[in-house]
Protein: Glutaryl-CoA dehydrogenase
Organism: Agromyces rhizosphaerae
Amino acid sequence: MTFEPLASDFYAYESLLSEREREALAELRAWLEADVRPVIDDYWERAEFPMQLVEPLAGTGAMSFAWDETAPFENSAVFRGFVALELARVDASISTFVGVQSGLATGSLAVAGSPEQRREWIPKLASGELIGAFGLTEPLSGSDSARGLRTTARREGDEWVLNGEKRWIGNATFSDITIIWAKDVADGQVKGFIVPTDTPGYSASKIEGKISLRAVQNADIVLEDVRVPERLRLQRADSFRATASVLRLTRAEVAWSAVGVAIGAYEAALAYAKTRDQFGKPIASHQLVQDLLVKCLGNITASLGMVVRVSEMLDRGEQRDEHSALAKSYATARMRETVAWAREAMGGNGIVLEHGAARFFADAEALYSYEGTREMNTLIVGRAITGSAAFV
């Protein structure tokens, strides 16, 4: 399939990809345009997830690009970033689903699972045979998860007993397994568990009334004496450091998704401006509209340069927490500006789904906050550059 560079990739960062990666990206882009874009507004408005897309989505390889038991990171981090961008450029809910499935859930197994656990579970998640979720955030513990986790794990013989609550857990209304992070009452350390969602004592209920990422099925989870065998404990997760390692890898891809959301809104505004006539000519020829569009493109280009570089650092083993934190903080802040300018360029029509920008405008708010708020990521970077922690 012929690869056509995005016009919104103004400095041609896609040229850094290999020919094989560009071909894979072209196939994913074609599928998204043909199968996702025509239906996603309807699902977003109804706050439902298009389950019929999971199998063909897995068929594109999008859920298996990140991890492979025999060749982890066979595809470059820059390529995986562009996959996240492409998904979010069409729909941030689909991008978030993949981010949870192949990033957080699969990533937990890849980072903290034993070889046997990785061989058993990762192929099933990559193929879409199983749906995964990632249970870290709690009703009273979000930004302070490292120290404030309230869900407990107590060992009894060859089993662990889990009790607690989780909140904002994506995919969790229909997941087959959820990676639950809980504090061991014996040593106070955070450990991870593969919890089949049909386990007695496990329940998940959909969070209603969202104004952002409406197609994503976020859930409240309750764990009441949920018994999990020792073989389902992530064998290499003995402290919150394992959790942080997963988040470091996925946080940069959220930054990529933010660039995709910004591009989606910008492309909708640009197309609209070329066809919307006011004062006898297309508004694309008006100076103030061009100013808005160029500011959008400037934010996109600056953010894209940052996420490309942080992914190159990951490929070289040089990326640290502060690098992904700065990328996430900066890219989501610029995304928030960009979707607002894109909406503004479309006037009142910008708040209507059919004109393309409204969904991105709303979805940006969720990306701005999840996987670490701007403030928390700022403090991670601040600690790195000053040597002083200012978290409390």
In short: The mean pLDDT is 92.
